[in-house]
TrEMBL record:
Pfam families the UniProt entry points to: S4, tRNA-synt_1b
Entry annotated with the keyword Ribosomal protein: no
Keyword terms, alphabetized: Aminoacyl-tRNA synthetase, ATP-binding, Cytoplasm, Ligase, Nucleotide-binding, Protein biosynthesis
Gene: tyrS
Subunit organization: Homodimer.
Residue span of motif 'KMSKS' region: 245-249
GO molecular function: ATP binding; heme binding; peroxidase activity; RNA binding; tyrosine-tRNA ligase activity
Catalyzed reactions per annotation: tRNA(Tyr) + L-tyrosine + ATP = L-tyrosyl-tRNA(Tyr) + AMP + diphosphate + H(+)
Domain of life, per lineage: Bacteria
This protein's name: Tyrosine--tRNA ligase
Annotated source species: Pannonibacter tanglangensis
Motif ('HIGH' region): 55-64
Length: 425
């Protein structure tokens, strides 16, 4: 079907469903396989939908927040989410838009990672009641297949020609990097996930990041061959105003699990949002009414800092709960006013980072006090960076074990109001 757009607003015209109107207004839609069909499905009644999370680490990170928040909105509007933990697909590893193979994890590592991921999902989605979100592990069906049985049942449903046409595969091949048969089969497994969920739970929509488009389309096509109408929706890849991937630092991802990044450190990440990103982040990462988002986004100068505190507190409450968000706000306000020293670690880094040669500039970026090494260098050269209370003006400074206190921690401060207590372990 052809989708018509309103020339004044730039959004699809004649939308019937509140679900799509909310997602579009908040900037949570990148692509859909059939916008009009999905709109009609949402309007007709509750839609069961899913998003998958491979267990490649012991925690989700802020990059996963966009699909999770999309799921949360749809659940609030009466639709039922399924969060699929990739106990089966993680054994293979998604090659999408990667230039190298993912490390293969043992089943024990995957189980441990899934436990950490489950914690974050349980805090964002409502799992209670008959209509609560479902948590399922795709190992339930993927590990039951016999190899020849799988090839006979599904191998004829996919062509190598079509699979090689997807950007996620072409990116690896264009980089002249090997793509193993194991990885090549990943998109088949994800398509089978969609079909199995449709058969078991009546699931008709898959949500994923923009890098999952090819995998999602394969699942929709497999469902069509099984006589089912399935839909796909991708959420946007969020970048900062400077063009960087949102949430990536020199230390890696900004984690959702409190053992990887404390609620206070998580709050500070959002409080340090660049001015140009505040409006976008308020719309995406809070549940504030859009008129309030517009009011806060219009603030200028020092007043914009109030909007950043609201953003930080709302995002922290979403992930860690209201009580942790209030405590992080209180500590953050004291820290930014320069009135209190830190008692709780705000950031955690592996002790091995010191052996790898952690630079001061990397540390400044890792704590969110700068968006790039260049910005960190300017702060250091201007005399605005203090390490353990002492000003450091050498941008070549490396962090050594001797910089750590007895509890393997150090303090980093930018000016009078921005402070971090970094724990290594």
């Amino acid at each position: 079907m052809t989708q018509h757009f309103d020339e004044a607003t730039g959004r699809p015209a004649r939308l019937q469903s509140e679900a799509l109107r909310v997602l579009l207004d908040r900037g949570l839609v990148n692509q859909t396989t059939d916008l009009e069909g999905l709109d009609a499905a949402f309007h007709a009644g509750p839609v069961t939908f899913y998003a998958g999370f491979d267990a490649t680490a012991a925690s989700l990170h802020v990059g996963h927040l966009v699909p999770l928040i999309t799921m949360r909105w749809l659940q609030k509007l009466g639709h039922r989410p399924i969060a699929v933990l990739g106990g089966g697909t993680t054994l293979v590893g998604d090659p999408s838009f990667r230039n190298d193979s993912r490390p293969l994890l043992s089943e024990a590592q995957i189980d441990e990672n899934m436990a950490g991921i489950r914690r974050s999902i349980e805090g964002i989605l409502d799992l209670e009641g008959a209509d609560g979100a479902l948590l399922v592990n795709n190992a339930e069906w993927l590990t039951e297949f016999r190899f020849l049985e799988f090839l006979r049942d599904y191998g004829t449903q996919f062509t190598v020609n079509r699979m090689m046409s997807f950007d996620s595969v072409r990116t690896r091949l264009d980089a002249q990097q090997p793509l193993t048969v194991l990885e090549f089969c990943y998109m088949m497994l994800q398509a089978v996930d969609f079909l199995e969920l449709a058969r078991r739970h009546g699931c008709s929509l898959q949500i994923g990041g923009s890098d999952q488009w090819g995998n999602i389309v394969n699942g929709v096509d497999l469902g069509r061959r099984d006589g089912r109408q399935l839909f796909g929706l991708t959420v946007p890849l969020v970048t900062t105003a400077s063009g960087q991937k949102m949430g990536k630092t020199a230390a890696g991802a900004v984690w959702l699990h409190p053992d990887k990044l404390s609620p206070s450190g998580f709050w500070q990440f959002w409080r340090n949002t660049a001015d140009a990103d505040v409006a976008q982040y308020l719309r995406l990462f809070t549940e504030l009414p859009l008129n309030e988002v517009a009011r806060l986004s219009a603030l200028k100068g020092a007043e914009l800092n109030e909007a950043k505190k609201i953003l930080a507190t709302q995002a922290t409450a979403l992930v860690h709960g209201a009580a942790a968000a209030r405590a992080a706000l209180e500590q953050g306000e004291a820290l930014f006013s320069g009135e209190e020293d830190l008692a709780e670690a705000t950031h955690h880094l592996p002790l091995a980072r010191l052996a790898d040669g952690l630079g001061l500039l990397e540390l400044v970026v890792a704590t969110g006090f700068a968006q790039s090494n260049g910005e960190a260098r300017r702060l250091v050269e201007a005399g605005g960076v203090r390490l353990n209370g002492t000003t450091v003006d050498d941008p070549r400074r490396r962090i050594a074990p001797g910089d750590l206190a007895a509890n393997d921690r150090l303090t980093l401060a930018i000016g009078r109001r921005r402070k971090a207590l970094v724990a290594f372990g």
